[in-house]
Specification:
mainly alpha, 79% helix
C-alpha cells in the first residue's frame, strides 16, 4: 500500500507540474507584458514631465527676451510672433497689455485684456485676471453700479481673484463716499484665513486711514 500510495503521489505531482508548465506556456506572457507596460508607462510619464518642463522653460525664455526689447512696438511684435498654446497666448496678451499701458496706450491695452475675457478657450484664471485688470483700467469712466456689476462673477466663492475683487469693490465704494460699506468689506477680507501679506497690509492701512479721518471729524 505504501509503495502504491507513493507511486500515485509521484504521478499526481508529475501531472500537476505538467499542467502548471502548460498553463505557464499559455498564460505566462500576461504578467510579463503587465510589467513591461507598467515600466513603459512610468518611463513615458517621466519623459512627458521632462518635455513639458523643457517646453515651459523655453517659452519663458522667449517671453522674457521679447519683453526686454527696449522699443515697445518691437517688443509687442516679438510677443505676437511667439508660438503658443491657449495658456501661453493668455500670458502673451497680458504682457502686451502691460506694455501698451506702460506706453500710455490704454485703448490698446484694454483691447488685449478684452480679447482674453471673451475667449472661452482661455482658462478661467486668466479670464478673471484680465477682467479685473480691465475694470481697473476703466474705473474712472465707469459708474459705481457698472463696476459692482462686473465684479459679481469675480467675487463668487472659489473664484481665483475673489479677495482682489472684494478689495476693488471696497475702493469703488470709497470713491463713491460709501465708507461704511467699504469698511465692512475690508474687515471681512481681514478675517479671511489665507489673505496674502501684501493685501492684508493694504487693507490694514486703508482701514487705519478711515479711523484717522473719523477721529479728525470728531475733533
Amino acid at each position: 500500500m505504501t509503495n502504491t500510495d507513493s507511486f500515485i503521489s509521484e504521478v499526481s505531482d508529475e501531472v500537476r507540474r505538467d499542467r502548471l508548465f502548460r498553463l505557464f506556456r499559455r498564460y505566462g506572457w500576461i504578467p510579463i507584458i503587465a510589467v513591461i507596460l507598467l515600466v513603459s508607462g512610468a518611463a513615458f510619464n517621466e519623459w512627458r514631465k521632462a518635455s513639458s518642463q523643457t517646453a515651459a522653460e523655453k517659452f519663458g525664455d522667449m517671453l522674457r527676451a521679447a519683453i526686454s526689447e527696449e522699443d515697445t512696438r518691437t517688443a509687442i511684435a516679438a510677443l505676437s510672433d511667439l508660438p503658443a498654446n491657449d495658456n501661453q497666448k493668455a500670458l502673451i496678451a497680458l504682457s502686451k497689455s502691460q506694455l501698451w499701458a506702460a506706453a500710455g496706450e490704454e485703448g490698446q491695452s484694454l483691447d488685449e485684456l478684452m480679447n482674453i475675457v471673451g475667449d472661452d478657450n482661455v482658462p478661467l484664471i486668466y479670464r478673471h485676471l484680465a477682467e479685473l485688470k480691465s475694470i481697473w483700467t476703466q474705473s474712472d469712466e465707469m459708474t459705481l453700479n457698472e463696476q459692482l456689476e462686473r465684479l459679481v462673477d469675480l467675487e463668487q466663492p472659489g473664484a481665483p481673484f475673489r479677495l482682489l475683487a472684494n478689495e476693488t469693490r471696497a475702493h469703488a465704494l470709497v470713491k463713491a463716499g460709501q465708507i461704511d460699506e467699504a469698511t465692512t468689506i475690508l474687515r471681512n477680507i481681514q478675517e479671511e484665513a489665507a489673505v496674502p501679506p501684501d493685501l492684508r497690509q493694504r487693507v490694514t492701512e486703508l482701514l487705519a486711514t478711515f479711523e484717522v479721518k473719523s477721529d479728525g471729524d470728531l475733533n
